[in-house]
Amino acid sequence: MEQLIKRMLMGLSLVCITCLCAHANLDAAETEQTAAMSTESAKPDTPPSAPKPGTTPSAPQPDTTPSAPKTWHIAISPDMPEPYIEVLRQYEDYIDTCIAEKDTESVQERLWHGEWPYVYDELGVYAKATPNNSVCYALKDLSGDGFPELIMAQYWSEAYPYAIYHYNEEKGVEMSYFVSSYFSMIFCENGILEVDSAGAGYSTITYLQYLEDAQDWVILDKTAIENTWDNATDTTSSKYFKLAPGENGDPDIPISEAEYRQIAEKYAAKPMTFKWIPLVYNETDPWYSYAEDENFIYEHDFMTSRDGQGFHWWIYLEAAYIMRDYGRRIGYDFMAEQWTVERIWPIKGGYYNILLSQDHHDVVLNVLCHPDEKNCGADRRYVVLYAQYENGSRSAGYNDAVSYDTQLEWRDFDYHERFETPPIENPFGDLYETSIYQPCYIALYRYEQETGYHGKWRIQQIFGRAPFWDYLVESDDRLLWICTDLDDYTYVPFLEKQEP
Q1: In Å, what is the CA distance from 253 to each residue of 52, 244, 266, 466?
Q2: Angstrom distance (rounded) from CA 275 to CA 273
Q3: How far is it, in rounded angstroms, from Cα 111 to Cα 118?
Q4: Is-contact 463 476, C-beta < 8 A?
Q5: Which of 10, 360, 410, 496 would you call most buried, defined as having the most Cβ atoms within 10 angstroms of its Cβ?
Q6: Which of 242, 267, 292 is the last residue of a domain?
Q7: Longest Cα pair distance anywhere in the chain, in angstroms?
Q8: What digits encode the pLDDT tens for the residues 111-137?
Q9: Side-chain half-sphere exposure of 158, counting CA atoms within 13 A
Q10: Which contacts of 186-190 are long-range, i.e. CB under 8 A and separated by 24 or more positions?
Q11: Are both 102 and 142 inside the same structural domain?
């Protein structure tokens, strides 16, 4: 009941916000219209000029204003079954379209006419409004067939499930059950799905179970309570109802309060717990989480080490986990060919930089990661600095010759811009020309301007792989990884409170 009340308040607040926005837009429109009328009244009464013979009126010019760079992407869990990835991709495409087209009515019509068949419209409203934190999902075997269901939820300080997606080999993926914001779904450990509706005068509870024979959620029982307020006595009287077996609709068979409670006790069980995962991640916190997989088959000749780096096999296994996870996220098979481990560089705090190459350096994967050899999977995370492969979404190098993807938000810089070099110790001295260090100095200067942090820096390592240059920079209390190409730079502050 408490959960339902919170959802009703949430819905009311959303309506209020919508109304306030509509009111503000109306006021703005009226002001604009009044100004336009005043301007027109000052003009002489001249008819509109007709186009010259042999010409046609010019068409409206398209809006060429560059759109803001996308700073979020769908977060696909490492254990996400392949059939459900398309569901998440449709949510991503729908949100992208809403943002690009300013949420026009045509986008909603396309949704209702089936362009994104897996997108539940109520969840879509929340998703496009605040894509960073409004929708989450979980995986759990609710039907008992050994294959997990995908549960999508709206997040408002806690998760409120809205839709259940079920998969079988014959029908593929189906949205097997869904509710609106007026209902609340509670999953019980005994396999019962309890769906509650709350109202001051009338509320219902539906008890369902997924039956394999029916390939659907089937109603086992449904009850209702009708409350009437008596103003003369300041008391509430209640009537109780149940639904006839095999029927659907509102309960209409009167029952006693005792029978009402007996039905509730019949299905009572401990609620299930879920690991809720945000639907999207924001690039301001670009780290991906990943996990080990006991069923993962690791081929010992899958990766070979250049120059015989003396690392234990577990770090290569972690690299394989990362390659598979990132490949699934972006839709590219990084595991199809032999890989060479170009560099494994341990960094204090349990971090590693791993650089791998494939097919004579035509494909490269450069990651920062925090693997965990002590089998504490929650600590495993990584960030892709760049993944260089054909059809990457970005380009770098002379004549944009290098295609690559990245998790990071890159910033433009100019070698000739004016900046103040932060206090920095450079032990590499004259090993490289000034043009190699300058991007690092500019990035440090920009980092201090953006964060307000000022420290005494020291370059720990420089790694070069054309057209990219990486710098590991350290201060008294943090580590900063700076990655640059010829025109852009980015940084990852991955250890900001360093232990002594």
Answers
A1: 77, 7, 18, 77
A2: 7
A3: 10
A4: no
A5: 410
A6: 267
A7: 94
A8: 988 999 999 988 877 777 666 557 889
A9: 9
A10: 186/271, 187/140, 187/142, 187/151, 187/161, 187/271, 187/272, 187/274, 188/267, 188/268, 188/269, 188/270, 188/271, 188/272, 189/269, 189/270, 189/271, 189/272, 190/267, 190/269
A11: yes
Summarised one tens digit per residue, pLDDT across range 252-293 is 999 999 999 999 999 999 999 887 877 876 545 667 777 776
Q: Side chain identity at 91, as an amino acid letter?
A: Y
Low-confidence ranges of the chain (pLDDT < 70): 1-73, 103, 129-133, 156-157, 281-286, 293-302, 306-310, 359-361, 372-379, 391, 398-399, 415, 495-500
**d(C-alpha 213, C-alpha 193), whole Å:** 17
Whether the model clears a pTM of 0.85, i.e. scores above it, the answer is no
| Overall number of domains in the chain | 3
Residue reference for tokens 């490289």 = 432
Q: Which residue has the tokens 């068949």?
A: 117
Is the domain of 444 the same as that of 296?
Answer: no
In the sheet with 277-278, reading across from the earlier edge strand, the strands are 172-178, 159-168, 149-155, 135-140, 277-278
Q: 329 lies in a domain?
A: yes
Who contacts 84 (Cβ-Cβ below 8 Å, separation ≥6)? 139, 150, 165, 167, 173
- 405 and 418 fall within a common domain: no
CB distance 216 to 178 below 8 Å: no
Residue 127, classified by CB atoms within 10 Å of its CB into exposed (0-12), middle (13-18) or buried (19+), is buried
Helix (H, G, I), strand (E, B) or coil at 66: coil
Kindly state whether residues 329 and 392 are assigned to the same domain.
yes
Backbone CA torsion sign across 86, 336, 375, 482? negative
Q: Which domain holds residue 242?
A: 72-267
* Residue in the block written with tokens 């004549």: 399
DSSP 350: T
User: Is 140 in contact with 151 (CB distance < 8 Å)?
Assistant: yes
The DSSP code for 400 is G
